[in-house]
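Write out this protein's structure.
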Amino acid sequence: MRVRVVLVIALVLVLVGSVSAGCSSDSDSQATTSTSVAASSLTSVAATSSSTTSTSEATTTTAEPPIVSVLVKSADADSLGGAGDQMMWSVTASGDGVVAVGQESSPDGTHAAAWFSSDGIMWRRVAEVPSDPGGMSVMWSVAASDDVAVAVGQIDPGGDSDGAVWVSRDGEAWTLVADPDDVLGGRAKQVMWSVTVGGPGFVATGHDTPLNPASEDDDRDAAVWVSADGETWSRVPHDDTVFGGPGNQVMISVTAGGPGVVGVSYDSVGGDRDAAVWTSADGIAWERVPHDEAVFGGEGDQQMLGVFSFDTGLIAVGYDTTSAGWDAAVWTSPDGLTWTRTPDPDNVFGGPGDQTMTVVIATKDGLVGIGGDTDDEGEKIAMWTQVGGGWARLDDRDIPTGTEAEAITWATALGSSQVAVGFTWTTDGSADASTWTTGPTNR
């Protein structure tokens, strides 16, 4: 139980893998009931000389944070639960509402799943999401333009994971994009982890594992795909100096921002994981922000799980491992090229057990970071709010904790509100999809 909520997000947003008992995995897996998720990685590349890093920033503060409009959990269990496991991994505003995507696991396998809501509170489960017959499928990420919603993930038709794309015009009827030329797949194992509106239309990032590496846990390369319309895709040509090299390179989160598009996660070239950032003006030509050990590295593992763009610049969040466990971590950048690690002299991001931050949302009271906290007393959602130049941990009274373990995996704006998605572990050990919306505090 100890690692289930704090690490489960890291086991997916951070990690690479197949998500179902009995499904093949391209790394060591962490089993959670009928769901199994394996670990992944990212690497370093040479970027332009104009890309720099910085270690100076206002210190983190523990000043009393304002009472924010926290997330309130939806009670719409009928559309979110059911037999087996249901998990939401991503959500985006689309058309007249919001679309959430993820997976459903049952004795016959793991299959992509999608939900639609006009208000973020009441949800409709999409009856069926097409997938490759005979294998597992998962939707990891979703983004939407004015015309189409695009979800990316993976299918596993025969033990060889391929990237996969689904499109929908209304958020409810989905089509699996055909890939006759193996642009999304190929001779190796591919996973598409994240998608954003940007570049020529859409940009998706992930990783590619060679077919017969010396070690499948030590030879992943970052990969990028682009599309003008969400339906016809091309693979950005591999450049080993940017996307590859010794160790693992995986781009797990991507957003429009900085010079155009920014992708993040980690690089294991030195034997452990260091945070890593890639940038592109058009989604096609990419550069690696040069590694700075003081900003992206350190003892243990450092990994960016999500990157988010705001009026003030970009924020990447994730974790840093210490001898005591996992601590949440935050990096900021005004332009995607120059990055600063937010210092934490008062251990706002740490504490007993494990903490990680995976999502940042903008509320009327300011930016709020969301993640997980697991210690000997149990598992719970954790939240931090930006205070001046630093961050403060929210009081547990302002956090939507329940009687069961919960995980928030992603969030999106819907008008003036925020909608977050994830899942709840039930008393029988299965998982039900869960959603939250901004609302009054618990005080």
